[in-house]
């Protein structure tokens, strides 16, 4: 995009569903750590190549707080904007208050709240005359599959911590649980019949249960048209959900030195 008007930049970045947006600069020549790329829609499941989450996607195991430690180190050097995070977590706070008689769930809500990075914007390093930011946003809807209330609540807490909507199978277990939940939480839940789930709109999956059923679910998700959907599978009772798999990363690179919006920049290799 080429424009000299800040309001236009804000309008486009606020409505465009794209992972990378370049303003007044060439789109070729992304630098690792400065303009992370890919990882959304047909560009992959994420995280972005060259971004702060990329290394953790390559590890088979890691400390539970590893991502938070990495971001805390960066935040000590560069400014952090977390205003949106506070708004996104209101349903999680309602769930935490509702769980007054469930200390394990309350503690889990607090843990996920501290780990969640959705709704944050960080300034990335870059050359003089260029402003690069990375914004972490929630995915729109997460399919959550569990056969008991404990795991359903674990999944619910994780998804609400990030700020996504929840898609539940339309079963007696989930319907009865939804009736118990506070309004702020139940408003974030959608239902679909089991046979209709593969055709529903969702962009991530969390599953608790047996490995055979997980394999079947993965096959159904893989057969869908469109973007690849990431599936997290866990044994019953596990709480080590990877919240970063529920983020969408938005990279914005603005050539602040080209206030006039020189269209010839698009052709520079």
Automatic annotation (TrEMBL):
Gene3D superfamilies: Aldehyde Dehydrogenase, Chain A, domain 1, Aldehyde Dehydrogenase, Chain A, domain 2. Keywords: NAD, Oxidoreductase. It comes from the Bacteria. Signal peptide: none annotated. GO terms for cellular component: cytoplasmic side of plasma membrane. GO terms for molecular function: L-glutamate gamma-semialdehyde dehydrogenase activity. One of its GO terms (biological process) is L-proline catabolic process to L-glutamate. PANTHER family: DELTA-1-PYRROLINE-5-CARBOXYLATE DEHYDROGENASE 1, ISOFORM A-RELATED, DELTA-1-PYRROLINE-5-CARBOXYLATE DEHYDROGENASE 2, ISOFORM A-RELATED. This is PutA and PutP / proline dehydrogenase transcriptional repressor. It comes from Klebsiella pneumoniae. The gene is putA_1.
């Amino acid at each position: 995009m080429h424009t000299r008007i800040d309001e236009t930049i804000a309008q486009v970045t606020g409505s465009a569903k794209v992972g990378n947006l370049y303003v007044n600069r060439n789109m070729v020549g992304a630098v690792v750590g400065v303009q992370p790329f890919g990882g959304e829609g047909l560009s992959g499941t994420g995280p972005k190549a060259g971004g702060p989450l990329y290394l953790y996607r390559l590890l088979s195991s890691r400390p539970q707080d590893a991502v938070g430690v990495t971001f805390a180190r960066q935040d000590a050097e560069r400014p952090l904007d977390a205003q949106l995070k506070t708004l996104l977590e209101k349903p999680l706070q309602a769930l935490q208050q509702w769980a007054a008689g469930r200390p394990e769930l309350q503690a889990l809500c607090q843990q996920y709240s501290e780990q969640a990075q959705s709704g944050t914007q960080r300034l990335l390093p870059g050359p003089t005359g260029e402003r690069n930011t990375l914004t972490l946003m929630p995915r729109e809807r997460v399919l959550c599959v569990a056969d008991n209330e404990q795991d359903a609540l674990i999944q619910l807490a994780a998804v609400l911590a990030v700020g996504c909507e929840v898609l539940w199978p339309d079963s007696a277990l989930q319907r009865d649980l939804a009736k118990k939940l506070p309004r702020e939480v139940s408003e974030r839940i959608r239902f679909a019949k089991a046979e209709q789930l593969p055709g529903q709109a969702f962009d991530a999956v969390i599953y608790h249960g047996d490995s055979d059923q997980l394999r079947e679910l993965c096959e159904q998700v893989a057969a869908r048209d469109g973007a690849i959907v990431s599936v997290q599978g866990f044994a019953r009772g596990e709480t080590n959900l990877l919240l970063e798999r529920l983020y969408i990363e938005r990279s914005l690179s603005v050539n602040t030195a080209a206030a006039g919006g020189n269209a010839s920049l698009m052709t520079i290799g």
